[in-house]
Amino acid sequence: MTTDKPPAVNSDPLISTGHDSLDAHSAIPKAGHLPAAQIRQMLQQRWGDALLERLHAIGRIAANLGTPAYLVGGSVRDLLQNHPTPDVDLAIEGDVRAVAGACSAELSGVQCTYHPQFGTAILQYPDGFQLDLARCRIEHYPAPAALPEVQPGDIQADLIRRDFTINAMAISLDPENFGDFLDPYGGSEDLQHNLLRVLHPLSFLDDPTRILRGLRFAVRFQLQLETDTRGLLEEALAQDVFARLSGARLWRELKYLLELTDLPAALEKLGAWQLWTLLRPAPLELEALLARIRRGQQEIKWFHCHFSGEKLLGAAVLLTILWRDVPWAEAEKRLHYWPLAEGRHILNDLHRLSEMPVALAKASRPSVVARLWESLSLPGMLALWAEYPETDAITESGRYYLLKQRGLTSPLNGKDLQAMGLAPGPQLGKVLRRLHDARLDGAIKDKETARQWLIRQGILPAIQP
Question: Rounded to an integer, what distance in angstroms lies between the CA atom of residue 461 and that of residue 465?
Answer without folding.
Answer: 10
